[in-house]
Amino acid sequence: MSGRRSANLAGTGRLMRLIVRRDRVRLTLWIGGLVGLMAVSAAEVHALYDTPEAVAAYGATVRGNPALVVFAGPGYGLDHPGIGAVLVNETSLWMALACGLMSIFLVNRHTRAEEESERADLVRSTVVGRHAPIAAVLTVAVAANALVAVGAALTTVAAGFAVAGTVALCASMGIVGVVYASATAVAAQVAGTGRATLGLGSAAAGLAFIVRGLGDISVAALSWSTPFGWGIGVRAYAGERWWTLVGLLVVAVGLALVAVLLSNRRDLGRGMLPQRLGRERAGPWSRTTLGLTFRLQRGAWLGWSVGLFLTAMVYGSVGDEVEQMLQDNPALADYLTPVPGSNLTDLFLSTALRMLAMLVCGYAVSSALRARSEETAGYAESMLATPLSRWWWLGSHVLVTVATVAGLVAVSSLGVGVGYGLATADAGAVGRLTLAGMVLLPSVLVVAGIAVLLVGCAPRLTMASWAVLAVVVVIGIFAEVLRLPRWVRDLSPLEHAPALPAQAWRTLPVVVLTMVAVVATTAGMIGFRRRDLTGG
């Protein structure tokens, strides 16, 4: 029996080295970015809440506020708050979600996506056991999450936080990431395509995050039905409960075993769930290049739309409370970019719109890089073998990106308006805030344009698009806290757009940003026409 198990795992080590080799840039960006984000957050919290009075004011502001609990958790330790409880409240859930997404993308890329591209057939034709691919990618996922947890713990302890609480906090977010790695391995056996696997994994993480939020403000059992509830339930810096981490590990191991058992019951390249039969003939819209491109991104766009709208409504719903919140906790003002002559409510709303625009930038990069994914998978070569021109093939991806990004900016701005309008009974706020958010569209399109530029002119460097996004996010979140100089802030296109409704309308920045986006996109399309197609 042991010999059979060894045969099933044959080649695991070599596959691990291959995964690390192929994803060395991605993993470096993920791990370095998350550790860096935790380091900055720890230093920022320590600087902002450096007195017992500031910590007490934070606890009074956050604890029991339903809108904030949804995003930050139940506030363990905030009844008698310490600096560690503030750090947990600010970072724990978001870092755990980021680790989960890192794991979902990694496992899908090296399981179901490999089968869909038929590279798995070549690998399995060598001396590789049936379960080696799952074992290899899960081992790498565990190692990646462990590196994030260890790196985050070291930087947090260096910032002056207690060791025990730091270990609990960082271990919880890493183990949540491992749980979603195993969950994605299960989804890879069930789903019929890599896109469906990614959708299942991402939907599971998003739904769990929402259910955890509902549980924290209503029925606690809902929160404990999710990995996020168990992760934050370790109560870091508030009387640690280590058994919750053991429970998460049991779940992760159980899901990994389920993935192995399911892999024995399916054929390579097929999922457990039968694929829905499509129409015998495609509709008129789907037979066009533009229609096909939109169809491939439709599911992701709808998911982003729902998530952004709900998030935006929460932001808008607390808009009328911001003045009281800042009176109770003046340190929160450091998160708002000051605008002369503006009131605190408008300042908060403009900041909320910018935060949502940063999220849309993430979708914009993903959508713009879809063309590169199609190219590396070989689909572009098949389509361009027909009379389809390169200009229109890439142009269809650009048009879909522009249209869907505009839709997301509109949906998120509308959500802020609806949330604020319902909270204040101000119906006019819906249209006013929707228009204010649309002003940020050219800035988001600049980020998308840079991604298209890299696709067309430097396809091997397309991962740098995510580095651009990281710069935008860091500047947007930490510019005031870190007192970044003006020239650093100007690196983000969002900094150049007028900050409505806190700031007056300015035409010139909007025109210039639009021109930059058009020039970058056009240069990328020209570069794509002149270069050879390349593989992954």
Structure description:
- By secondary structure, the protein is mainly α.
- It folds into two domains: 1-273, no CATH class; 285-531, no CATH class.
- 73% of the residues lie in helices and 0% in strands.
- α2 packs across α9 (132-158), α9 runs antiparallel to α10 and α15 packs parallel to α20 (390-424).
- The protein starts with a helix and ends in a 6-residue tail after the last helix.
Features:
536 residues; mainly alpha; 2 domains; 25 helices; 73% helix
SS-based structural class? Answer: mainly alpha
The parts where pLDDT drops under 50 for at least 5 residues are none
What count of structural domains?
2
Shape: globular
The string of secondary-structure elements, in order, is: HHHHHHHHHHHHHHHHHHHHHHHHH
Radius of gyration using CA atoms only:
24 Å
Mean residue pLDDT: 84
Strand proportion, as a percent range, falls in under 5%
Helix content range of the residues, please? over 70%
Terminal Cα span: 39 Å
Number of helix segments? 25
| Sheet of most strands | none
In total, the number of strands is 0
Summarize the structure.
It is built from 25 helices and no strands.
What order do the helices and strands come in, and which of them pair?
Elements: H1 2-8, H2 12-22, H3 24-48, H4 52-62, H5 66-72, H6 83-109, H7 112-116, H8 119-124, H9 132-158, H10 163-190, H11 194-217, H12 220-224, H13 227-232, H14 243-263, H15 289-317, H16 322-328, H17 344-368, H18 370-376, H19 379-384, H20 390-424, H21 428-438, H22 441-457, H23 464-478, H24 486-489, H25 507-530
Helix pairs in contact: 2-9, 3-6, 3-9, 3-23, 5-11, 6-9, 6-10, 6-11, 9-10, 10-11, 10-14, 15-17, 15-20, 17-20, 17-22, 17-23, 20-21, 20-22, 20-25, 22-23, 22-25
